Amino acid sequence: MQAAIIKQNSDVASIKAMIEQQMDSAAFTSWIAPLDFNVSENLLVLAAQNQFSADYISGVYGAMLQKVASEFGLNVKLIVRGTKLSASVANDNNVQSYAPVMEKSAPVAFDAFIPSDENAFVLSAAKKVASGAVSFSPLFIYGSAGCGKTLLAECIKSQSEKVILMSGGQFVSEFARSLQNRTIFAFKDFCRNCDTFILDDVQALSGKHATTDEFLQLVMDLRAMGKNVVLTACCAPNNLSGFDRRAQSLLASGLVVDMAAPNANVKRVMLMRAGVKSDVADALSPRIACDGHMIAGVANKIKTYTELMGGNVTLEIAEHLLADTLEKFKTPIAMVKSISEKLGVAYDAICGTSRAKSLVLARQIIMVVLKNSTHLSLSEIGTYVGNRDHASVLYAIRQIEKLKQTDLVLSAQINQLISECK
């Protein structure tokens, strides 16, 4: 009897030590250390101080605990302290029900997304996901606000079978609600009971470690089951703040594609779909910011004006109506300052004499953008970037053209800047 007790205590100590190795020390101290450990036959019974702790530990660390227990030939049961072992335990899904708070939206066809050369690849990938199982998962789509990520996600949802679409904010709130209502396992089942899971705005999970852990486990489970996962974010996985390296690595393990903001032609088509005449759309599109939300607002304003006031909207009426929205025609200096800001460098540094690598590249990018978006001569371009001579500008353009052949991200960035300056 004495030997059995010693062996049991030894097993418990070994199990605790192995669990501690798998976790952050602060999380272990907060959640696992306070548990009562007991080995009964082939079970590792963990008793928590209350039902909330049991639910939370099961939801966040359940898979890891089971993995460690299996190393010792055991299964795991989480109970509330004082509960008999035969009683219902914390992970009994049979007594849970979960009703998601989900917004219903009208179906959206892929025709609603106006294609451009820059977004041909991401559109093809989205259509492939909507058609069924794919070899890449997750599909990670990133781009600036207003480039059409949410619209594309809604298109995938409308054209797919058995799909769940949540915003990042919804996932955070639903996860917290399921913990509070003790329906965490039903929430897990709900998220996994689909063929395609879409999370829009992954960055909303930033800094929320428990929610992020749950979501990462969801992604791994869905991928293991051959399901599709689609994610959207404001930036590439390795640039997401508030996510550790493991999370960034998993998010980037499928297909990562960038999404360009609407170009002049996309803006023109959006305006014409709202009933704007082609000549007015041609004149307005270069003067509207490359932001899909803003373009949609302009289109709605013109459409509403037409419905209320009657008649066609001429260019003169449109300019008066949109005086607070339309951008003024940009001067070369304004272009240089705007591009400098987007590249994260100071305008004074661009015009200065520093030869720092990042500054030289930014300077060369600006010269190329001015060359392709204005009618300035090479000598004139040089005057706007610190009075560089004709030969310096020509050399910069040649260097960037070489880089564009091997750096597709840089090429896309330059094309986007050129589109915005035209």
Could you say how many structural domains there are in total? Answer: 4
* Structure summary, number of beta strands: 8
Mean pLDDT: 84
CATH architecture level-2 label of the largest domain: 3-Layer(aba) Sandwich
Q: Between the first and last Cα atoms, what is the distance in angstroms? A: 85 Å
CATH superfamily of the largest domain: P-loop containing nucleotide triphosphate hydrolases
Q: Report the top-level CATH class of the largest domain.
A: Alpha Beta
Comma- or semicolon-separated keywords:
422 residues, GMP Synthetase, Chain A, domain 3, 55% helix, Rossmann fold, globular, disordered N terminus, 4 domains, 5-stranded parallel sheet, 8 strands, alpha/beta, single chain, 10% strand
Can you give a write-up of this model?
With 422 residues, this protein is α/β, with parallel strands linked by helices. The chain has helices at 2-22, 25-32, 51-71, 120-131, 149-159, 168-180, 184-192, 209-224, 245-251, 264-273, 278-284, 292-309, 315-321, 332-343, 347-350, 357-373, 378-383, 390-406, 408-421, and strands spanning 36-40, 43-48, 75-80, 139-142, 163-167, 196-200, 228-233, 255-258. It has a five-stranded parallel β-sheet, sandwiched between helices. A three-stranded mixed β-sheet has the order 1-2-3. Strand 1 (36-40) and strand 2 form a beta hairpin. It is globular, with a radius of gyration of 28 Å. Mean pLDDT is 84; it is low at 1-7 and 86-95.
